[in-house]
Amino acid sequence: MERLSGSNLIIVSNREPYEHRRLKDRLVCRRTDGGLTSALDPALRRLGGTWVAWGSGEADRGAVGPGAVVEVPPESHSHTYRLRRVWLSRDEVKGGYVGYASEVLWPLCHVTLDRVAYLKAFWNGYRALNHQFADAVLEELRERPGPVWVHDFQLALLPGLLKQTAPDTRVALFWHIPWPGPDVFRILPERRELLESLLAADCLTFQTAGYVREFAECAHQFLGAEVGRAPDGVQYRGHMTKLTAQAISVDFRSISDMAKTAEVESLMTLARRRLGLGQGIRMGLGVDRLDYTKGLLKRLWALDTFFTRYPHYRGKFTFVQIAVPTRSEVEAYRRYREVIRETASEINARHCRGGWHPIEYLEGRIGFSTLVAYYRMADLALVSSVYDGMNLVAKEYASSQVDEQGVLLVSQMAGAADELTDALIINPYDPEGLADALKQALEMPEEERQRRMSAMRRHLQMYDIHAWVDRCLHDAGVWSDQR
Ligand code: G6P
Q1: Does residue 2 register a pLDDT over 60?
Q2: Are residues 436 and 311 part of one domain?
Q3: pTM, two decimal places
Q4: 152 lines ligand 1 (CB under 6 A)
Q5: Which domain, by its residues, includes 264?
Q6: How far is residue 390's CA from residue 35's CA, in Å, rounded to a whole number?
Q7: HSE (CB half, 13 Å, CA atoms) of 48?
Q8: Domain co-membership, 392 together with 269
Q9: Distance CA 483, CA 108 (A)
């Protein structure tokens, strides 16, 4: 078994953890959005190593040293790691990332099939993008040989490309999003190429055992691969790929500690004032990238139903929706944003009274300590994804709930529902059921709220992001001795 020294691990993802921008004549560095980077950044800060990712920031080129490398995070003197940036051409971004990854694989894996906008040309861009990444990783491997841990659907061709040139390198891949069944996966004209590349990896890890089963079924149906019993492995052309399920998590301790700080407490007071939440007004919270898979529209309909069915909550409960714009290059996302804005203002117009609105819609990015303040003060948090690999907002909310007063509602279509069984599990397709679950959350006795939240917090403390990394690397045959 290969021993991880703590500095030779190479993580690869399309999205980089930190982007550089120019503000007047200053270079500023900010962390990027999305579950992948929020989970992996604390992990790599602990382990050290190299993260290879697309240099997507407008000022990224000006921030790197030799070999396109920059040390991150910028404010830290210890616990840093190397970020090696990959430069993608316009065609690789348009065809590979925007086209094949975001407009084909993303909706396909989330089974939102009407949104799949396939074009053959996208495939060429996707291959080119994966080749760029492979070149960068192989260059890194020549300098610092070590295990490679690939992340997500943008880089499905990477295991195959790496193994062609460096067959002895240990390659693992974590698939962050759902894996669909064969009846859906067959839509993809390049299904065989994708599966063959993935099966070049030594270990493939998914969020849930259900996705492992669907993957194994696809490998069997489309490649005739031999699938192990559990299924815990796939044998294809003489190579064995281990299959495992590990639910990704969050940095429980650091979020929980942050939630107790004086800074967060004063941000809570500030937020209540800014939102006009007087004494006695309860608060619900949604935090999402503006992505159609998050079920934001269905959530708004459910809130409309809630205030219609239970009008005595008007003026007594406000739902705060933090919506982070994302993938604005894709038309479906731009349109979705418009629909969400319009629907929120229609519902506000329908139910408002005095200066009170049912929905406070806040579009944009907010700093992490402010986010933790919202999480801690929210009486309930609602995750209503129509399909979601895991959903880390659910886990961040519970990690921030140091007073153990809040109620978490999680969609049955999110991986997090398998694990956080003390949440109220909701069906995002049923607005009346969801409206009733909101009422149940608001009226839940204190003792029950505390019991449920405390159980979820205990679970997350044990199954935090560091435990997840250790388990994934252990599955991959990379021994981690860092804990
Ligand atoms: C999800 C995906 C990630 C992706 C993130 C943000 O979490 O699983 O792979 O990086 O969304 O999306 P973006 O397209 O901006 O990278």
Answers
A1: no
A2: yes
A3: 0.96
A4: yes
A5: 252-462
A6: 9
A7: 11
A8: yes
A9: 37
408 sits in the region (left: phi over 0; alpha: psi -120 to 50; else beta) called: beta
Cα distance between residue 410 and residue 391, in whole Å: 9
How many angstroms separate the alpha carbon of residue 106 from the centre of ligand 1? 10
Task: With beta carbons less than 8 A apart as the criterion, state whether 239 and 223 touch.
Answer: no
454 plus 392 within the same structural domain:
yes
Question: In the chain, how many domains are there?
Answer: 2
If asked whether residues 177 and 275 sit together in one domain, one would say: no
Task: For a ligand 1 pocket test, name from 14, 19, 30, 36 the mutation site with the most ligand atoms within 8 angstroms of its C-beta.
Answer: 36
| Burial of residue 78 (number of CB atoms within 10 Å: 0-12, 13-18, 19+) | exposed
Structure tokens at 420: 């956080």
Are 144 and 205 found together in one domain? Answer: yes
What phi and psi, each to the nearest 5 degrees, are found at residue 27?
Answer: -90, 125
Instruction: Calculate how far, in angstroms, residue 479's C-alpha sits from the geometric centre of ligand 1.
Output: 28
Quick one: which of 236, 233, 228 has its CA closest to 192? Answer: 236
Structure tokens at 414: 């999110």
Instruction: Identify whether residues 229 and 315 lie together within a single domain.
Output: no
Query: Which amino acid is residue 268, in one-letter code?
Result: M
C-beta atoms surrounding 374 within 10 Å: 23
Q: Is any ligand 1 atom within 6 A of the Cβ of residue 40?
A: no
Q: How far is the CA of 176 from the centre of ligand 1 (A)?
A: 9
> Does the pLDDT of residue 483 top 50, yes or no?
no
Q: For residue 134, give the CATH number of its domain.
A: 3.40.50.2000
Q: Which two tokens stand for residue 392?
A: 């880390």
Q: Which residue has the tokens 């300590």?
A: 369
Nearest to 231 by CA among 25, 240, 222: 240
Buried residues in 225-240 as b, exposed as e (16+ CB within 10 A): bebeeebebbebeeee
Span 32-78, pLDDT tens digits? 988 899 889 988 998 899 999 999 999 999 999 999 999 999 887 78
CA distance 138 to 134: 6
Q: Which of 18, 27, 81, 96 is nearest to 51 (CA)?
A: 81
452 and 469 fall within a common domain: no
- pLDDT for 175 equals 98
> 342: CA distance to ligand 1 center in Å?
25
Q: Do 449 and 477 sit in the same domain of this protein?
A: no
